């Protein structure tokens, strides 16, 4: 497992036979692969799943089409999503797949209508309990989840401040997505800019990055603020991880702050239908804008992941592998 | 403000005139002074109150008797509690005092029937949401708050494990207070002993100490566990504070853990009557045991506080200054 910064040299592309399908399984053709910073964390150690080891094929969430079914649940031609592999063809068990009947472009089912959108929806509204009039700050604001969090918060009637890493992203967040302000954590004036953008303190901080950005926002929380712990992208690909969030737990006590981690797949699986209905409605009426950052071809996945870790993407990064037949 | 370990040489005892009472104020004779580890934190920096500066008289929660009243709300002879000073006589404003009509020994109104008891009650049940059958771990378990937390958790039907600092305290917790297990954070086997005492993981960790003890318990949390951030005693009196809780926020995400800070005075002031009724009932029927660690005389307050920071107390430390007239 790489302990240094992830590089394309850590990956190898191999050509092998299409896998055999046993009774009760299905053979899937991968169409779209989701690229998620968490995949780098899987290489570090066991998380909510076992660690990915040297020699393993990289796992990842993906959309696929069933090409051969040897089970009753799926038929050839079905579109499915699931935790698959960075491969053209994957054999899967039916219980690990979800059928999709697409009403919108297929790629949307990896962005606003996938784990990403559900994470933004339940994380902001249920974990963060964002209320109208409150100040919501989101980091990784121009990323897949953050860009949706900010827009949902605006619809909820919140003041929304995005933390991102470049003037281009700041411009996109405020001009296109309607954020009230956007600040860059790479600016020397980050701490002051954040304070100025949040004159009444931060009620909800949706944290995708951890590290020193989290430390800084913790210093600006309002009484009874909530920190939604969604990701720690700043710490997945570094040789010098920070020890932990500065001042925790003392900083939580003096302002009665809640920090809450969650995984949408374990915590909200029974409420996906509710979340998807809301997200689909917002996409259909144009109130939620989704931006997808698409690379072409299975072989681009390693550079696609490295880019996400360095913040080169705007919106949801994904890999287009094939079109459905 | 002392940056090294607190010593009695940081304090000076002065004899001054009894203060004058202005219109609308009351003159109080201090009877009992509460000693709280948080008082050391007040010397470090602004917390939920302004920092205590060199030359200031040490503030502290206390019970007192009104000796002269120049307001309508109180009369000479009334017993009151409030945020007063380490002084024999203190002038106070009526809005800063609460009248007490004692039904039990006066000292109980600084322990089980004071901020300490209310902190244990609301912290465990409301912030920690402890449920029957769950495993509750409490640090500072032989201290004022911890010893009540564990007993309330037992009454709630939880498995209760105390973390303390000596075999004597371990014995008291399991033999006298009915804890299921007690482990010492000073033992080399602390981590393993905690794991063995919590085979299903920790559902609620009531944290009074922070530091490396918090790090250790965070490694043993159960899915959807709650960390009640009540105090950080390990960090109030050290020249080498730890940077923050190790692995936060990542460790919160992978197990959907909530960390929540609170201050009973700001968060639950409107529910004191409920808490006090429960606590008083438990004291009256003998289901809650209260142990008070009493030093005699105003001049013992500095050593009393230093002792609390070093864990020499068992139960609630307080200073007996005078008896009511």
Would you mind describing this structure in some detail?
- 2 copies of one chain form a homodimer.
- Chain A is of the alpha/beta class and 325 residues long.
- Helix content of chain A is 27%, strand content 25%.
- Chain A is built from 10 helices and 14 strands.
- In chain A, strands 1, 2, 3, 4, 5, 13 and 14 form a 7-stranded mixed beta sheet that branches. In chain A, strands 8-7-6-9-10-12 form a 6-stranded parallel beta sheet, sandwiched between helices.
- The longest helix of chain A is centred in the middle third of the chain and has 13 residues, at 115-127.
- The two termini of chain A are 37 Å apart.
- The mean pLDDT of chain A is 96.
- Chain A binds chain B through residues 41, 47-48, 207, 210, 214-215, 223-224, 227, 229-232, 235, 242-263, 266-267, and chain B through 41, 47-48, 207, 210, 214-215, 223-224, 227, 229-232, 235, 242-263, 266-267.
Summarize this, please?
The structure is a homodimer of 325-residue chains. With 325 residues, chain A is α/β, with parallel strands linked by helices. Chain A is built from ten helices and 14 strands.
């Amino acid at each position: 497992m790489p302990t240094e910064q992830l590089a394309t040299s850590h990956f190898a592309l191999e050509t092998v036979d299409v896998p055999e399908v046993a009774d009760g399984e299905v053979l899937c053709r991968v169409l779209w692969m989701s690229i998620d910073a968490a995949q780098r964390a899987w290489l570090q150690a066991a998380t909510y799943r076992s660690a990915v080891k040297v020699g393993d094929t990289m796992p990842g969430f993906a959309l696929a089409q069933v090409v051969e079914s040897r089970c009753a649940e799926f038929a050839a031609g079905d579109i499915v999503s699931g935790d698959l592999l960075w491969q053209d063809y994957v054999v899967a068990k039916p219980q690990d797949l979800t059928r999709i009947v697409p009403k919108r472009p297929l790629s949307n089912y990896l962005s606003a209508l996938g784990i990403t959108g559900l994470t933004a929806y339940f994380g902001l509204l249920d974990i963060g309990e964002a209320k109208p009039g409150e100040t919501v700050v989101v980091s990784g604001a121009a990323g897949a989840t953050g860009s949706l969090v900010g827009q949902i918060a605006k619809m909820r009637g919140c003041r929304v401040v995005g933390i991102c890493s470049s003037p281009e992203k700041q411009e996109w967040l405020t001009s296109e997505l309607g954020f009230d302000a956007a600040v860059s954590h790479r600016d020397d004036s980050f701490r002051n800019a954040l304070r100025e953008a949040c004159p009444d303190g931060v009620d909800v901080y949706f944290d995708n990055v951890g590290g020193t950005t989290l430390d800084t926002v913790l210093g600006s929380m309002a009484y009874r603020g909530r920190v939604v712990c969604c990701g720690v992208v700043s710490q997945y690909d570094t040789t010098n991880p920070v020890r932990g969030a500065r001042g925790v737990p003392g900083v939580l006590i003096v302002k009665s702050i809640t920090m809450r981690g969650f995984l949408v797949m374990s915590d909200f699986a029974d409420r996906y239908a509710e979340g998807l209905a809301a997200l689909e409605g917002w996409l259909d009426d144009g109130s939620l804008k989704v931006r997808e950052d698409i690379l072409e071809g299975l072989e681009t996945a390693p550079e696609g992941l490295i880019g996400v870790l360095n913040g080169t993407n705007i919106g949801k990064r994904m890999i287009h592998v094939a079109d459905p037949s």
